[in-house]
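Please describe our next protein:
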Amino acid sequence: MRGYRGIKYTLFICCYVFWVVSAVLIAVGIYAKIAKERDVVDTLTVDPAMLLIIVGSVMFLITFLGCFGALRNITCLLKMFLGILAVILLLQVAAGIVGYLFTDMVMERTEKLMMKAIVRYREDQDLENAIDFIQKKFQCCGVESYTDWSHNAYFECVDTNPSLEACGVPFSCCIHLPNQTVLNTMCGYGVQQLEKHSASFDVFTVGCLEKIASWTKNNLLLVAGLTAGLLLLEVCMICLAAAQICWIKKVQQQKKENELRSKSERKDSSWYPAFTDFDDE
């Protein structure tokens, strides 16, 4: 019985933790969505707020099945939880295999997605903050180079562009000195008109796609460890759910056998008055 309780409450605690995390993701996504001044993003792939809401909602539903099923010993909910988790695990493994076999295609799709995000810069505050964070974190600018910002209407480097930021790049591309205390948001103005060597003194000239790919290769063990840890956690939760289902079925089967045995014993223990005549028919 102790083993069953250990399985039950371990599964419940794991699901409860992810349940709380999913609720936080939904709350953050809803807050970000409401806080926007205007909503002009029409695709989920470039709308971080909507992506958080969808991912959080899916996690909330799945972990709710696991929490309630484990706590109340409901096999149908546990089976649904196990099945959905198994499908997600298989999809993740398949995505990893496809990404490894078709690396060039994945890089091409990623480049198109990042370029689309650059085009929509300034149109969505969440997307703008995400791009600025990536460029600061990886010390990069644009997708392949700093001149990619010419694809954005505000930074397009043409004579007919009336924007004050024409031929410039966002301030997140700028190289900040260690002793710099005041942020110069105009440091990227006009750098697209400079040669790469001259621009490299003021802004990062290497594209973010190359930087991210390089970081992934340099931290391959970390990425592989995090991925393996996530997959292992999913496998453990699947095993715990399967073990609890088997245990519940075993207990139910034992109860049925005990009921049948008790009925049989009651039938055998029935007695008749002494000297009763039994006539053969």
Observations:
- Residues 98 and 262 are 58 Å apart (CA to CA).
- DSSP finds eight helices and no strands in the chain.
